[in-house]
Structure formats: structure tokens, C-alpha cells
Amino acid sequence: MPTATEEPKGESRRWRGREPADRIATRRRQLLDAGLELMGTIGAAGMSMRAVCRAASLTERYFYESFANLDALQLAVLDEVVLGARDRLLAALADAPPEPEKVFAHVVSRFTDYMDEDPRRGRIMFVESQATLALGGRGNELIVEFTAPIAMSLSSGERKRNPPDDVDIRLNAHAIFGALAFLYRPWLDGALDISRDRFDRHATSAITELARARSSGAVRSGKSAKGK
């Protein structure tokens, strides 16, 4: 007989008034929430499938209903956190002030809100994204997706005066992500005893300078010199 929280095996009909797809989605959400808690506290290396199931109050068979293995769950948690940050930045750009010099500060403030709402996000995004081989590969892909809105927030005038090439964009994406990691992690942990306003202003200044970095001009100049 099934337990109070476990439906009969093989059932594909309504159970307790809920459709199968709804029950599966609910259990998947429970597993993701458990994964978020464990990755954001003990870290990916300390996780196990059994620990996830205990935290989600589900049996192991329900784990495999939604995820092929522990790597798959951890990747789903990472995607949810990083793409959630990206979407928050895109929303910030949509309602940013019209003055170009205020756009970047507005975007940084919204990102700080996202991190401050749940400090576990900071550990997952900046530490656990490189904790395993699988997470590292996906984490590197997500860096560009996450920093795309940051690049978009630069004034069009700056990009016209000194346009980046593809290499500039990729290098700046990694530089910005690294700066965010080393700025936000100690602030979220309470190691930086500074005000939120001061922190946002410094983060805005640091990231703005990194986004302006260019090496493409030197490459083009070198090619021109060789061609002469």
C-alpha cells in the first residue's frame, strides 16, 4: 500500500483530485527546492541523491521520475539561479531610467536585490558553478548568457566610439563574472561591513570599467602595421 505521500505505482489517473502531470510537476519542484537548499548550504560536493530525497520528503523512485542523476538535478538548479538573474537584469533594462549614465547603476541595484533576497543564490552562482566537471562546463556557458544584459546596458555612444569584437565580449564576460563573484560573495556573507548604497556604487563603477576593456584595437593596429 502507498504511504500518505506516495501514490500507487503505475497509476496514470487522477489521484486525490490531481492530474498526473500536476503531481509530477509538484514533485519536481520539491526536488529543485531541496537541491537549491543543499547546493546553497553544504555545496554540490557534499550532496547525495538520498540527501536530496530526504530534504524533499520523497522516495528515490520519484527522483528518477524527473532527473536522470544527481548531475542533472544540480545543473537544473544552476540554470534556474543564473537564468533567473539574467531575467531580472533584462526586466531592469526594460524599466531603466532614460539617462544613459543611470542605466548601469539601475541594473546593478536590481542584481543586488536578486542576490540579497536569497543569499544561497550567490554561493550557487559564484562557487558551486565550478564545483564539478559537469557544473563547470555549463557554468562557463551561462557566464555569457548572464553577462549579455550587462553588455546591453552600456551606452550606445560608448559602443560606437570603441566597439568590441567577439573576443572582447567573451573576455569581458568572464572578467565581469569574476568581479561579481569576488564582490558579492563576501558582501552576502557579511564579511564586508559597508552599506548597501556604497556597495552598489562600487560594484557599478568596477563593472563599468571592466565592460569598457578592449584589446581588439591593438589587434587591428598590429594587423595594419604588418600589412604595410
UniProtKB/TrEMBL annotation:
Gene3D superfamilies: Tetracycline Repressor, domain 2. Residues 48-67 bind DNA. Residues 1-20 are annotated as: Disordered. Residues 25-85 form the HTH tetR-type domain. InterPro entries: Homeodomain-like_sf, HTH-type_TetR-like_transc_reg, HTH_TetR. GO terms for molecular function: DNA-binding transcription factor activity; transcription cis-regulatory region binding. Keywords: DNA-binding. PANTHER family: HTH-TYPE TRANSCRIPTIONAL REGULATOR RUTR, POSSIBLE TRANSCRIPTIONAL REGULATORY PROTEIN (PROBABLY TETR-FAMILY). This is HTH tetR-type domain-containing protein.
